[in-house]
Amino acid sequence: MANTDYIEVTIKEAAHEDAGRGIARLSIDTMKALDLVSGDVIEIEGRQKAATLIWPGFPQDTGKAVLRIDGSTRSNVGAGIDDKVRIKKTEAGYAKKVTIQPTQPIRLVGGEQYLGRILRGRPVTEGQHIRVSILGNPLTFAIARVVPKGIAIVTDSTEIELKETPYEREGAA
Asked: Residue 20 — left, alpha, or beta (φ > 0 → left; ψ -120 to 50 → alpha)?
């Protein structure tokens, strides 16, 4: 199967310990069909598209086209548990700069460093939402801009810019 081919999978709930880690789990046989190895980046296409790192699935998923993702990733692709989505292996460059905005008014001192640590090693795309817990309070932020455009992985050298104004998706009324 060529790397540009999508395959259809069914979304299942992520393991509790995987929640918030920015990973998806896929059975070893399905990973082989897509020429994937642990740590590769996949694009998930539901009502929207998102990217995540892929890890091997659980033994009980062998022979099943099952993708285990957390609630945040399901929200980003616009799909729920037992919905069908399409996935494919994709390439991701390294992000030079990522602009992040809250989804509600908030001022966060030191937020760039904190969010940079959380996102380090993860693929991001414009419009993606991330949920973080700050002092026990869950907050949602949006990836407003990625340089270069497309899917990019946050690194130690990625410049993180945190804006105070709430994010509004382009085309939203």
From this structure: left
